[in-house]
UniProtKB/TrEMBL annotation:
Alphabetically ordered keywords of this record: Cell membrane, Membrane, Transmembrane, Transmembrane helix
Keyword DNA-binding attached: no
Keyword Repressor tagged: no
Lineage: Bacteria, Pseudomonadati, Pseudomonadota, Betaproteobacteria, Burkholderiales
Identification of the protein by name: Branched-chain amino acid ABC transporter permease
Principal location class: membrane
Length: 358
């Protein structure tokens, strides 16, 4: 009976429309943020930061952007890797060609570059949808790969096509160690997740969901499909572009166009499907699942094979990972289309009534 809301009366509209209207939710979120900002840096090792936590935070940010476009607006996109690449290369060019530019404005400018790129390749959504739109966004992926490989200006005339950044600072503080990188990624993720949650709860979020459910009916009641679809592409591309800039600047440090391949786009889409379409929480759950599962499989499969007297190679573990991903996507689409977020929501509803049956 710890999750009951008896006695929690709402006396104002503001209290009734809170992001977390139940007191227990606010307490849990506050403790979770306190643990993430204070306890994790004290307890985690350098390997844990660089291999799991920092990639998880950045991928969660990218999955959040994909979920806005695919989950909330219903526009299928296979060009997320391209938007990340544009954000990374855009931020790099601003950072290198404007000496003294702080890191945060460079990341924002990279996100704006991805916004314009996303709107450009979002224009086909005004005429096509479904599989045809997916192919149109996939064209963005191939175009970005060609652009960053062939046009040397984007890589600052690097002969190999590989670029790197150094000397990162935020408010005069160097971003070099794992702890500072973790705090930077976590702070950006918290701010953007809060803004995105408020955005999808507002008028523009309701327009996106109306377009997703039935675009013809949405147009009949006065919603402008062009504005709704392109705004979804713009917001989604901005968030994904910032995630791409963080992935290049903070996680990789040096990268080339292959770092944002079409495989990355499919992984982000898988995260959203497994985590839950149309849910901010789904991006986090999907990113955690996809990030932790390969590490768990790489440790568990050889151990289980050893118990059975079978030797399994690294390639075999990689193939098993892909098969499990595919099986889970099919399972979620059939059994629970709304993903892990829906399972969590159902558990919360049961906790609100437990131990009573109704």
């Amino acid at each position: 009976m710890l999750y009951r809301e008896n006695g929690q009366f709402k006396t104002t509209y503001r209290a009734d429309q809170q992001i977390f209207p139940i007191l227990q939710d606010r307490i849990v979120i506050g403790l979770l943020l306190l643990f993430a900002f204070v306890a994790v840096p004290l307890l985690a090792s350098d390997y844990l930061f660089r291999a799991i936590l920092i990639p998880f935070l950045i991928i969660s940010l990218a999955a959040l952007g994909v979920n806005i476009l695919v989950g909330y607006c219903g526009q299928i996109s296979l060009g997320s890797g391209a938007f990340m690449a544009v954000g990374a290369y855009g931020a790099y060019n601003f950072f290198v060609r404007m000496p003294g530019l702080p890191l945060i404005p460079a990341l924002i400018l990279g996100g704006l570059c991805a916004t314009f790129f996303g709107i450009l390749f979002g224009l086909p959504s005004l005429r096509v949808k479904g599989l045809y739109l997916a192919v149109a966004t996939l064209a963005a992926q191939f175009f970005s790969d060609w652009m960053f490989l062939r046009i040397k200006w984007f890589t600052n005339d690097s002969p190999s096509g590989s670029i790197s950044v150094t000397g990162l600072q935020v408010f005069g503080l160097p971003i070099e160690g794992a702890h500072s990188k973790y705090w930077l990624c976590l702070s950006i993720l918290v701010v953007i997740a809060l803004l995105a949650k408020n955005l999808v709860r507002g008028a523009i979020g309701r327009e996106w969901m109306a377009i997703r459910d039935m675009d013809v009916a949405a147009a009949v009641i006065g919603i402008r499909p062009m504005y709704a679809k392109l705004s979804a592409f713009a917001v989604s591309s901005f968030i994904i572009g910032m995630a791409g800039a963080l992935w290049g600047f903070v996680h990789l440090g040096a990268w080339e166009p292959a770092a944002f391949s079409v495989d990355f786009s499919f992984r982000l889409l898988f995260m959203v499907i497994i985590g839950g379409l149309g849910s901010i929480l789904g991006g986090f759950l999907g990113a955690a699942f996809i990030t932790v599962l390969p590490i768990a499989l790489s440790q568990a499969l050889p151990a289980l094979a050893g118990l059975a007297g079978i030797e399994i190679s690294t390639a075999g573990v990689s193939h098993a990972e892909l098969m499990i991903f595919g099986g889970l996507i099919v399972w979620f689409l059939i059994v629970e289309p709304h993903g892990l977020a829906k399972l969590w929501s159902t558990a919360k509803q049961k906790l609100r009534l437990w131990p009573f049956p109704h």
